[in-house]
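Proteins fold reproducibly. Take a tokenised chain:

. . .
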Amino acid sequence: MTADVLKLKTAKTNTAVSIEFSPRIISLIEQTQTGDLAFIVSKKGTPLTKESFGNWFRDACRAAGVQKSAHGLRKFSATLAADAGATSHQLMAQFGWVTVKQAEIYTKGADRAHLGKVSSRLVEEQIKLKIAPHLNSGTGDSGKKSTIIET
């Protein structure tokens, strides 16, 4: 792991994943006990298995009044990414999925109204970059005036 990127291979699919941590997450990690060769350890300092971690996380959630699990948090994270416009292939890279089918569960359910607006802005940006600069250059000028509507 470099200062802010965790690189690992998933246990289930043996797929390489790179996860960038925010400064806030780095700060939390620095305040947390870790092992020499294990990132997540028990109170005794021994590495947690994925099953032990899942059980510990679920119990911690329940103690905090949250009815979620580590898997639920993973699903929530995928939903947030898809709602923000992450593509199927970006989700595959982040979560270690090897088929588009798994990622599409989240992208199909993404906030379509928001994503439609984001896509419209992408089109607008491309018009400004690729078409608008040529409107006044005389290139392809047929004597007709072109109008770009800005929103």
Remarks:
- The chain is about 50% helix and 5% strand.
- The CA atoms of residues 54 and 70 lie 6 Å apart.
